[in-house]
Design brief:
Mean pLDDT: 92
Strand order of the largest sheet: 3-2-1-4-5
Distance between the termini: 26 Å
Radius of gyration: 13 Å
């Protein structure tokens, strides 16, 4: 696999548990590179505070972490549309489900067909 695209929109208090799930799903997919896009109104350092432990526990997985504000959705689509993506993982809570669904629907078809897991439809968090 070249890379997995991960889209996350979640309450801050659920980010640590969600990131543990993300890394478990990445491992089971066999991917070695992950592009994690988190939609949050929090500053970068606060988001990293929530996810620091899962990131350190999975240091062997190559990942890039991007933090976006809600108003940056067109930039998320633009940036990720240029990349070669072999799989997509979605993570959200009920409050952010429509945001992730809208964002996912705006991605090109060649990326959307690679949806591996929609954790918004079957949340375990």
């Amino acid at each position: 696999m070249k890379a997995l695209l991960v889209l996350v929109a979640m309450k801050d208090e659920n980010l640590e548990k969600t990131f543990r799930k993300i890394f478990a799903d990445v491992r089971s997919s066999g991917a070695k590179k992950v592009l994690i896009n988190v939609i949050s109104q929090q500053p970068f350092h606060k988001v990293v505070d929530y996810i620091r432990e899962p990131m350190l526990d999975n240091i062997d997985i190559g990942y890039e972490l991007f933090l976006w504000k809600r108003e940056d959705m067109s930039k998320v689509v633009e940036e990720n549309s240029k990349k070669e993506i072999d799989g997509v993982l979605l993570y959200c809570d009920n409050e952010n489900r429509s945001l992730i669904e809208k964002l996912f629907s705006q991605l090109p078809n060649n990326i959307r067909v690679n949806l591996l897991k929609d954790n918004c439809r079957n949340p375990s968090v």
